[in-house]
Here is the input.
Amino acid sequence: MKHLSPVNEKARALARSAESRASDGTPPPSAEPRADVVALDQQGGPPQQPQGPHVPLGCSTIFSPGWEVDRTGGTAGLCQPVERDLFDCHLGCFWPAQVPDQLNHAPDWTKKCAAAQKDWRKIDLIFP
Amino acid sequence: MSQFLPGDCHTFESAGRRFVYLSSSAAVLAIDDVSAAVLDIVADRPRSGDELVSALSDRYSRIEIEEAALELARVRALRIAAAPPARPAARVLPLTPIPLSTMVLNVTSQCNLSCAYCYEYGEDKIVETANGRLPKWMSEETARESVDFLLRESGQSAHLTFFGGETLMNFRVLKTAVAYAKTRAAELGKDIDFSLTTNATLLKPEIIEFLAEHNFGVTISIDGPPDIQNRFRVFQNGGGSYDLVAPKIRALLARHRSRPIGARVTLTRETLDVRRIYDHLTQEIGFWEVGFAPVTSAPGRSYAFGEDGFEHVLDAFRDLARDYRDAALEGRHHGFSNVRETLEEIHKGANKAWPCGAGFGLLGVSTAGDVALCHRFAGSDDHRLGTVRDGIDRDAQRAFLESHHIDHKTDCRTCWARPLCAGGCYHEAHTRQGSTLRPNLHYCEWIRGWTDTCLRIYGEIAQTNPAFLRQFEGVTHEAPQPS
Here is the structure.
């Protein structure tokens, strides 16, 4: 936790339990991913998957098992950076990416995301 | 669009820093400025993520605001309206058989004082002893059977507490019970220790010697300086007891030094001078600790608290609690035990499904050997949970625990102070609200006010002198003192 710090014994126990869950790979109890998401454009920088299994972010994990990783089980050999899948699948590809309804509901959801590789974190979270 | 709503928590500020107390877990967290700002504007009214960002974007970046909101939601300091409702906590009853840790033995129902407010003898008594079937004195045989019962039901360590009436009026049986308990515990390889509560009128050198020798935890019921003590704690002829007890207590304090000796004060609407009482008992008599409890009474008694009385006590408690805080920040001892007890619970993160151990870890035994919820109900047919001879009636015990679980106290469900209060004393509820099942709604504001005060003190100590809090870590060695 970045903004909250444990003070009493119970809070420390909670923090310890959350940490150990994170380090043995069990996902934390919320949708918030613990590790940063890394992709092709970061190759050459810090190691891609520093700890724990890397779950690629993309649209296809649900629909097409096997497609989201390359034949070596990594993401390096995929044809596109995973963050680009969001746009490519949703705009130009046959594959229906799970993105908000840009026509009626959330026309501006990508407004702050000028370059997907750099700005994908700024894409709005849209709740139904 | 999802909405962020206030969560199940209480925020407070201490020494310039903001904290949050989480009622679902009893965790205390320090929160940074952006989290505090998020909580503040959500407390005002529910906000969507965008509204949060636009309200706070002059001070913080969007990422900071969203991260903080998500972290707060994760610990349930905020709720997300679109999220599925949090699963209600599973109601977990303790494993049975439940080890008994403290047995309170009412060795007599007789008393040589006639305190008008006494719950055992006064206007609100539960058990009719005057001409009833209960013996006035516990027999040696019943005491032995009770000790066997305790050692049968306990885990490795057992606490035996003697209570009355006036406990020392049956010193003869107390003495034999201690000897028997020590022998039996040694044979069984268990640890046992002893404590008692007394009004001090019958202390004399042999008894003091005995208490010191057997390392008794001693609690003295006393209300304060002469004018206050003699207001309610009187003999049958109406004469005050101060002059008799003060020298005896001093003699006890001088001889018995292996365990801290505490005073237990009953506050009434007529005796509310908390600071004067505390100063007298610690400085002039020499008690290590003083604990205060408002009198238990049905509403309308002349000594009962009204709304203003509770408020007054809270102010007086806060005033004295500041002294405790100042001492703690410098690492010194202060004897206001109400603060110490609450700080210990806060530090450990106590999160209670029942207000106290009555009915499982703690049981009371009447002079006849009936086992009850606690000493305050000992001898009451309606609250019997077995006898020392036949053991605990497990069905009755389970039914009691099931029906008194905090989840059944609808008024408590949304209260942020419930981890420490859990509805409050069963006996108080029985007397004031008519049933042990009901929460003590007459003192909710007082409990919340007091918990908030202690949280602030806790926050300040945690920041400035965290070493002071180490005394609260690990196992609690002192058995709770019945009052």
Q: What stands out?
A: The interface with chain B takes residues 1-11, 13-14, 28-30, 32, 121-122, 125, 127-128 of chain A (CB under 8 Å). The CA atoms of residues 113 and 122 of chain A lie 6 Å apart. The first strand of chain A starts at residue 4 and ends at 6.
